[in-house]
Amino acid sequence: MFAPERTPRERRQALRDSLASETITKLPGAFNPLTARLIEDIGAFEGVYVSGAVVANDLGLPDIGLTTLTEVAHRGRQIARATNLPVLIDADTGFGEPMSAARTVAEFEAAGLAALHLEDQVNPKRCGHLDGKEVVPRELMLRRITAAVRERSDDAFVICARTDAAGIEGIDEAIERAKAYADAGADLIFTEALYSESDFAKFRAAVDVPLLANMTEFGKTELLSASTLQDLGYNAVIWPVTTFRIAMGQTEAMLRDIAATGTQEPWLDKMQHRSRLYELVRYEDYNQFDQSVFTYSKDTYSTTFEGGGR
What we know:
By secondary structure, this protein is an alpha/beta fold. 48% of the residues lie in helices and 11% in strands. The chain has helices at residues 8-20, 33-42, 52-58, 69-80, 98-110, 138-151, 166-169, 171-183, 197-206, 226-232, 242-261, 274-280, 283-294, 298-305, and strands at 25-28, 48-50, 87-90, 115-119, 158-163, 188-191, 211-214, 236-239. Helix 4 (69-80) packs parallel to helix 5. 40% of the residues are buried.
């Protein structure tokens, strides 16, 4: 009950198998463990994504490299423990330089995660869809990837390399970086902040390794459907902040309505019902377990815990 039925190794291999299949791997973002449980329960997704921006924003911080490895690993562990699906997590720039990237891999493997992605931005990083970001020299990113690959203890753990170069140095440079990152051992390439369907097609035609597309809202990228990306030849897609934005948007609207009217009653039909929540948290399973091990008669309690010789 308290751990996934599938081992970390099994979940990592499931992600690798999905990335190698002809069907695109769909990874919605989870901003907490229960959202990850919901993603699994729906049954239409191959994995879960944990956004670094969401982890930062959930702490009331901007996404500018302020979160620590410990904070992100802790949230990743909580989410990975709540689902049988593989979890891909955002590792920003590796929380430092190449040796820090190696430690990040070790921490995330120990947390039960299936994959991480490292990016080639200058540390501290910026949101990939904002102006003002910078990328490190290609050679430094290659050292980050090499360190991560060398530290990996489970060869099924997926190391993804993200390049932000397209919006800074142009798509051709981003393509060349992607090829170099794959040669350094990256299993998957994250093409950040491409603008249009034609950009995605150009990248796919030039890079012969698995590719991940980011369909985040309110950014620089044209929103494409999973089926369109699959037709373009992409292997994975993330919706990193969608669940968080929906939750925060609806919560703000509800709070403003309560402030104005003094009641939440008009919102009841929009809420997740208590019975559905209990399904997701497996209330009945815990209740049965509790009754089987903690419900004792007075005589049993006295014999077992008050000097009964056991």
